[in-house]
Every structure is written in C-alpha cells, then in structure tokens.
Amino acid sequence: MRIAVNTRFLLKNRLEGIGLYTHEVVRRLVEQHPEHDFIFFFDRPYDPSFVFGKNVRPIVLFPPARHPLLFVWWFEWSVRRALRQHRADVFLSPDNFLCLGTKVKTVLVTHDIAHVHFPQQVPLAHRLYYRFFAKKFNQRADRIVAVSEYTKADLVQQYGIAPAKISVSGNGCRELFHPLQSTEKQAVRRKFTEGKPYFYFIGAVHPRKNVHRLIAAFDQFKNETGLPHLLLIAGRFAWQAGEVKSAYEAAKHRADIRFLGFVSDADAAQLMGAAEALVYVSLFEGFGVPVLEAMHAEVPIITSKVSSLPEVAGDAALLVDPENTGEIAKAMRQIATDELLRNKLVQLARLQRNKFSWQRAADTVWESIVEATKNQ
Fold this sequence. Notes:
Blueprint: E1 2-6, H1 18-32, E2 37-42, E3 56-60, H2 68-85, E4 90-93, E5 105-110, H3 114-117, H4 124-140, E6 143-146, H5 149-159, E7 166-168, H6 182-193, E8 198-202, H7 211-225, E9 230-234, H8 242-250, E10 257-261, H9 265-273, E11 277-280, H10 289-297, E12 301-304, H11 309-313, E13 318-320, H12 325-337, H13 339-352, H14 358-373
Parallel strand pairs: 1-2, 1-4, 2-3, 4-5, 5-6, 6-7, 8-9, 8-11, 9-10, 11-12, 12-13
Helix pairs in contact: 1-14, 7-8, 7-12
C-alpha cells in the first residue's frame, strides 16, 4: 500500500502541537509497517531526520503553505497532482486540512474546531478560510480521527458528521517529561527563579490561552498570600496579545512574572518538572498536551473545566472556571499551602496518564487507514 502523508509541520527545532503529533504518530507508523511505502509531502526543504525509514520517499511540493491562499494552492493543486502522480492508495492528513479535489481515500486528523467558538480570535484571512473549508474537509474525509471525545462531539454537533465515521485517540507524552529529584528541582529553580517556587504556563500566548486572566489571578494570589512564588510563562507571543500586555502592566506584582519566550524541549521538561504546579486555564482545547506532560512530570495541575480539559485531566487536577480569576487564584492558594492536596493530585495523575499514549494514537490512525481502504 502506498500511503501519502501531509508532513508540512515537521519543522526542525520547531515541533509544536500538530508538528509533534505528526512526528510521534507517523514515525511509529513507518517503523511498525515496513511492508508499506510512505510518501511524505513537505512544503519546504526538510531535515533528513524526518525520513523515518527506508520505506519513506520525501517530496517537496511548492509553495510553502502558511497563508490561506497558499493553503488552497498547496492542497488543491500540488497535493492533488502528487497523489495522482505517485498513485497513492490513501492520504493521511494530520493537520485539520485535506485535499477536496482528489478521489484518493483520505484519513483526516481533526484536533479542534476552535474557530467556530472563538472566531474573533482568528485573523480575518484564516477565519474566512476555515469558515468556507473546515466543514467541507470533515465531510469529505473517508475517516476522521479526533483527538478527544469532546472534539468528536463538537464535529457531530457543529458539522453534522456521522459519529460512526469518527474514531477517537488522544495525544501522548514524550519521554523527556518525567519526575525530577529534589536536587534537580532545586537546580532548575536556581537557574530560572533564584530558588523560588513558581507556577508554570506553557503555550502560545494568545487570547484563547487566557493568559491575561492567569496574570490577574496570580496578582490576586500574591496580594492575598504574600508568598514568594513566581509565575513563569513559556511560549511565543502570537496574535492579539494586547490583553496580556495590559494585564501585565496592571499587575502590582509584575516583577514576579517572567515571560520566557519559546523554550527548548530540554528546558520545557525541566521547567515543568520543577514547578509548584502547571496552571493551564485555557478557554478552549481540543486536547491540552501540557496537562498530560504535567501528569508525567508528577506536577500538580490547575486547569479549566471547559472543552476537552476535564476529559484529559480526570480527577487529577483542580478544575476552575477559566473566566473567574478569583477561582483561579483560590486554586493557586490551595496548591501552594496544602502539601497533602499536591500529593493526592500527583497520585491520581499516575492513574489518569495511562489512558493516553502515542502508541494508542498511532494504532487508532492505522486502524482508520485500514478502514478507509478496505473496500479498494
């Protein structure tokens, strides 16, 4: 079988979100199914480390697709033509988009449809593209893999997709996230916070991640407790970050808030492992990978009780209303002052984290490929 794969998010030293999902799932498919041929479609020069086996043929298709007009060009012209030229039996697209113009059987991975719920937080050109194409993509796909039961239900409700067409498998966690010894935690805190305890957030800084309310809640926590904790915010600034900057400038304790920017994988794992807690109070997530990473690092979690986050966190987190800064601040205070609570959340996380793995995700994608092609 010839399996074509959209690998445009495999970017060296820039594996975030969908890129990480593509890397972990597709690498396993290549390694575990050497009897099949894989054709990787990149949209720019690729790093050789992404050619995961001898059964992979990498191809660069023009143009680099990072704008809605180029999305259309890449998927509807370049990909369609390549699928025909290379006689693909199935097309796996793990990034929410696919080629509408091909007759090749297609498996689509849908991570979320956040644009339906928060259209104002999406740049205009992308918003128009999603509005026109996203429903069509999910209707066209022969099989869909959703990363959570929440996303599956959202596709059924918003787009009328038949539930039987959708399989569910969450994300996994990289092995670099693991518990740190006490001496390791102290070393990380000396490096980043002069030895002080800290709350940690990681993710792109834009409105849906709710960082402005996190800052306001942290300021309230500091006012109420006077504890020495810092707030570390790791991640690149994306669009519409004005509310975050305003919240920071208004914070009385802004000297205890640190923006780290994009951090390396090694630093991300260390920062997670030495945190007092992960505070991930996003307004909407298709899955919420940092929550799973915190479970593997055995760090307490504060997260939102909306979208997929309760499904991922289970009982292993304090769930809060992400729009209620007082509730977030209260959860921070509970974590900072109650060691028994911290230990309880970590113990529960050891059970909850076993529900998710990259191997399970890869198995679900493979089963969907087989299902999509079984009548060919």
